[in-house]
Amino acid sequence: MNILSYSINTLKKGLYDMSGVEVGQHFYWQIGDFQIHGQVLITSWVVIAILLGSAAIAVRNPQTIPTGGQNFFEYVLEFIRDVSKTQIGDEYRPWVPFIGTLFLFIFVSNWSGALFPWKIIQLPHGELAAPTNDINTTVALALLTSVAYFYAGLTKKGVGYFGKYIQPTPILLPINVLEDFTKPLSLSFRLFGNILADELVVVVLVSLVPLVVPIPVMFLGLFTSGIQALIFATLAAAYIGESMEGHH
């Protein structure tokens, strides 16, 4: 148990240290004893407003035979359902909203960093950037995935779900516990690193060759941003499906 306590304390310390990681300048709100990344909340609210506005437009006047925008949104929904069903299995339906929200939020966040000129908006201190350009956002998404992962397993198997942690031997208990936390966190690092690297490359190229060269890199960034959103959502669904089926 001492090993397990040490492992959990190490994980908590690592999460606390990650929350203090800063790349570039940041804009903070001080609320009591808490320091909040104001720039992340501002850009996240913009992304949420875009998603809610798009959903409102899509369902405003639904047609029996979809056309135009409705046809596009139904295609997106069908795509998310296929991803969820492939990774989770027959019990995928309750998880479509969660997987869809992850995918759409990350996708729009990534694209906002590539298409929207956040930096032209002047702040008292710091600068705006895509929500997924901040490690606090990606780690929060990873922790949500972990919560969904455990909830799915407990809902399906009850207390017996925890039996997997002592398989094939109780000696592996600390390793099995850490594995369930580190898998989603690895997603957060991958997403944060790719989005940050993409924006840095574009900024450097624009400063060196401001006219033609950055354009292909920006298009490549849009492509990789979409792929990153798909990878995160797909692996989140795979982890949920794994928790419901158990380790093989």
Q: Radius of gyration in whole Å, from Cα?
A: 20 Å
Low-pLDDT regions? none
Distance between the termini: 25 Å
Principal-axis shape equals: globular
**Strand residue percentage:** under 5%
Structural class estimated from helices and strands = mainly alpha
Strand order of the largest sheet: 1-2
* Average pLDDT for all residues: 76
Beta strands, count:
2
Number of domains: 1
Helix-strand pattern:
HEEHHHHHH
Work out the helix count: 7
Function: Key component of the proton channel; it plays a direct role in the translocation of protons across the membrane.
Main location: membrane
Family: Belongs to the ATPase A chain family.
GO molecular function, one term: proton-transporting ATP synthase activity, rotational mechanism
What does this structure look like?
- The protein has 248 residues and is mainly α.
- The protein contains seven helices and two strands; from the N terminus they run H-E-E-H-H-H-H-H-H.
- It has a two-stranded antiparallel ribbon with strand order 1-2.
- Helix 6 runs antiparallel to helix 7 (214-245).
- The longest helix has 36 residues, at 173-208.
- The protein starts with a helix and ends with a helix.
